[in-house]
Design brief:
This protein is α+β, with helices and mostly antiparallel strands and 302 residues long. The protein has 2 domains: 7-127, no CATH class; 173-294, Nucleoside Triphosphate Pyrophosphohydrolase (Alpha-Beta Complex). 22% of the residues lie in helices and 30% in strands. It is built from 7 helices and 15 strands. It has helices spanning 20-29, 32-37, 85-89, 100-103, 110-127, 212-224, 285-294; strands spanning 7-12, 15-19, 45-46, 65-69, 72-79, 95-99, 139-140, 159-160, 167-168, 173-182, 185-191, 202-205, 227-239, 244-255, 265-272. The strands form 3 sheets. Strands 1, 2, 3, 4, 5 and 6 form a 6-stranded mixed sheet that branches. A hairpin with a 2-residue loop joins strand 4 (65-69) and strand 5. The protein binds zinc ion. Zinc ion is lined by residues 131, 133-134, 136, 161, 163-164, 166.
Length: 302
């Protein structure tokens, strides 16, 4: 069955376009409760108001990726930074940019889950326009009668190449993030890309052919020059900036003296719970793992 979006979630850069009134409420209150109770429909736009011809004719037309959330079919679109064409033609003049990270600070809320899911689809729509093998324009795989493989709900966003018949599923880039403990201290580092003096956990992308455990050990070795032991999985979180799946671990220092690699990391040190540097933003998996450490959750582990 072909899915037709009833509503559109519209993104620009790292922001979601939301109604001005809602944005003002969210900002003025800085109200966690309001963010937690805002429904996904409130940050999306009726498809009926957006002229369908905006979506035809690559490469000028917008591309979107379709998904279902709580029974409603949504399309997700990512606009270029200076692009106002869809905003004008779709009657979104009332829309203002609001950071997706702030919408998603509570990942367990339906708004948080929706914002991250829709953001991931919006990015996927942009990078899956053409077949990587033969260069033909891709089409939505769902509901396409040429697609032999049965696609279920999880295949939302899958693309099909009408020329060479390949199917492309939405791509994720797995990354490991590790809280390294030494006694009652944890290792926190400042990446050269971080704003200000913010420090966070060691993290890095998994390379092809590597296990998660190998990736974690390699990143810690490369960035901090130490070896770890007793690596244990904690939790995961989708992080569509642009397409990561973060896999959180805890490990214990085993050997070596921690020092920054001087390239990616310009400062790192061991910190106790009562003497932490500037922290990662709430909503990130790094922050949630550090908060668990501060709450004493890992003090009993070996
Ligand atoms: Zn192809």
């Amino acid at each position: 069955m072909i899915l037709h979006p009833r509503r559109f979630a519209v993104f620009q850069g790292q922001d979601c376009l939301v109604p001005r009134q809602l944005a003002e409420q969210l900002h003025s209150g800085a109200d966690s409760a309001l963010l937690s109770t805002t429904v996904p429909e409130a940050i999306s736009w009726l498809a009926a108001g957006i002229p369908p011809e905006l979506f035809t004719g690559a490469p000028q037309g917008y591309s979107y990726s379709t998904f279902v959330f709580q029974g409603i079919a949504y399309g997700a679109v990512l606009l270029k930074d200076d692009d106002a064409r869809l905003i004008k033609a779709g009657g979104l003049e009332n829309a203002v940019n609001f950071p997706v990270r702030e919408l998603a600070f509570d990942f367990s809320s339906q708004l948080g889950r929706f914002a991250l899911l829709a953001k991931a689809h919006a990015h996927w729509a942009v990078v899956s326009r053409f077949c990587g093998a033969c260069g033909a324009p891709l089409v939505d795989a769902n509901g396409n009668e040429e697609v032999r493989e049965p696609l279920d709900d999880h295949a939302h966003g899958a693309r099909f190449c009408p020329r060479c018949k390949r199917i492309f599923f939405p791509r994720m880039s797995p990354a490991v993030i590790v809280l390294v403990r030494k006694g009652n201290s944890i290792l926190l580092e400042h990446n050269v890309r971080f704003p200000g003096k913010r420090h966070s956990l060691i993290a890095g992308f998994v390379e092809i052919g590597e296990t998660l455990e190998e990736a974690a050990a390699r990143e810690i070795r490369e960035e901090a020059g130490i070896e770890v032991k007793n690596l244990q999985y904690l939790r995961s979180q989708p992080w569509p900036f642009p397409d990561s799946l973060m896999l959180g671990f805890i490990a214990e220092w085993a050997s070596g003296e921690a020092h920054p690699d001087g390239v990616e990391i310009d400062h790192l040190d061991w910190y106790t719970a009562d003497n932490l540097p500037e922290m990662p933003m709430r909503g990130s998996i790094a922050r949630s793992i550090i908060d668990r450490f501060v709450a004493g959750e890992f003090s009993g582990t070996r």
